[in-house]
Amino acid sequence: MAHKNAEFYSQDIVIQVEDELFKVSQDLFVQHSQVFRDMFKIPQPEGIEPDGSSDERPLILEGIEKQDFIQLLRFLYPQFQGAAGHGFSLDHWKSVLKLSNLYAMTEVKDLAVDCLTPLLEAESPSLQIHLAQVHNVPKWLKPAKARLIERSNPIDENDVRLIGSTLALEVCAQREKALREKALGEEKLLENKLEKLENKLDKLGDALKNALRDKTMLEDMLSEELSRDMSFQKSKKSKPRH
């Protein structure tokens, strides 16, 4: 038997999610959700109590979990909206993203995507790819895939579970290609460094040769100067005195 939610049971339409009843603002859902706008436009047969009018005849939302619905309500109701980002955790925003996508809440979804983007940078790229695929966030796919290709850790079972075997094989192939290109790049860089080192050694060798040549020339000049000086001294000694 369904029971009332203690946190959200105070307004005009009764919604049942799993075994829990929520009494919330119909206008709030009409304002944010195209799905609910269309739903509430459907004419109700005369003499039949409309869905959502009472606990005995709630509007039943199938296929969702009550914890996700609670997080969506915490986002929608102003008293739960604090500073930028609403103080929500990754799991809270995942719930908001899931239901905002399901119920065509465009503005809510855009904000959830913006707030989730920096949070997901600290998580596995596979999680971001999974969320992008499931909840239709195409702008996440390329950067998340690039992070997965560049990641040092290999593709594991959790990655395959999140992104599927087909994409996992594609990523593995691209990782292998990227590693080959990186190895070739590093090899080329090493060759360039060796070439520069050889050039420096050649220049150093030339400089040493020039220095040795200059040293030899200087020694020869000094030797010649010394020889001339010695010859001069000898000539002075050999001259007779008067």
TrEMBL record:
Keyword Endoplasmic reticulum: no
Transmembrane region(s): none
CDD domains (UniProt xref): BTB_POZ_ZBTB_KLHL-like
Alphabetical keyword list: Coiled coil
Entries under Pfam families matching the protein: BTB
Domain BTB: 11-77
InterPro entries named in the record: BTB/POZ_dom, SKP1/BTB/POZ_sf
Keyword Translocase in record: no
Classification via SMART domains: BTB
SUPFAM superfamilies linked to this entry: POZ domain
Coiled coil segments of this chain: 180-214
Name of protein: BTB domain-containing protein
Organism of origin: Amanita muscaria (strain Koide BX008)
